[in-house]
Design brief:
The chain is mainly alpha-helical. It has one domain. About 60% of the residues lie in helices and about 5% in strands. A three-stranded mixed beta sheet has the order 2-1-3. The protein is globular.
């Protein structure tokens, strides 16, 4: 069971996870197979918890964590809706954190994202 912010409880719905991932990844170089795998990762993580109920914010954090690993634009899209940024300053703070993380540990590009690799 998922415990919503307002205290309501509802069954875990994998389709909601997939729908949120698809919205965040719209027009991004993320395949449906990758989205399905992310949803599997999240569902597995939630079922492996010893608790019978999972707070919706735990699921949201898991979605953000998975998106952060594969596509930072999709991550920011999801985070902007999930965290309900109140103003541009909150949004900019999130972007600055991403930039700082990228500077500390450059993200490796997937083969489909490489530019100017001479393969054309």
């Amino acid at each position: 069971m998922v415990v919503k912010k307002d205290g309501r409880r509802e069954p875990f719905d994998r389709a909601k996870i997939v729908a949120g991932l698809k919205r965040a990844c719209e027009k991004r170089p993320v395949s449906m197979e990758t989205i399905e795998q992310l949803a599997n990762n999240i569902e597995t993580a939630m079922t492996e918890q010893s608790e019978r109920e999972v707070a919706s914010n735990v699921i949201g954090a898991a979605v953000m964590n998975e998106l952060h690993k594969i596509d930072q634009v999709a991550y920011v899209r999801f985070a902007s809706v999930y965290r309900q940024f109140k103003d541009i300053d909150e949004f900019m703070h999130e972007l600055e954190d991403l930039i700082n993380q990228r500077k500390q540990k450059p993200a490796s590009r997937s083969a489909g994202e490489k530019k100017g690799d001479g393969a054309s």
